[in-house]
Amino acid sequence: MHTKGTSGFTLVEIVLSMTLGLMIMSAVASAYLFLGKNLGRLANAQQIEQKSHLALQYFTNDVASASSVDSASTGSQLQLTVVPSSGGSAIVTYAYDNGAGTLTRTYESNTPVVLMTDLTQLNFGYFSKTGTVNATPLSTRQIQVSFTTAAGSPANGTQSSFTYASPRMAIRNKPVGELYQ
pTM here? Predict the structure, then answer.
């Protein structure tokens, strides 16, 4: 009830304004959380992309300069003999540790360098000159790598995953007599 000379809000007006304010604050908080999760996913995706690019650059250079595949396993290890630009030959080993989720590269007997982490799957594919799947390392002419990696936490919605399959890369320094095998 209004009396003359008094002004103010009724209980209904106060309840409506508080409800409207609460709805607006909830929308702002929800948008803030959504943007935060997306920023986390974006940062994780960028990190995965950067590590994948570096690992594939090493792998592509090593396969292109390889003269032979010394030992091969589809899921865990690849050993190449490469011809460095300085001449001679060197052994490069790529090893996948399924338990640790890492891919390491060892040049000769140097300390292994971790190229990728957070791998959930990695496979090496070996192919003959004609492109058929090949189980014999000595007659391998093309190599392909495929992997899946993830970063972030699925619990808080910031996990990003990435699956990649490289093109088949040709071993370019194979001796001439072996090119037609």
Answer: 0.73
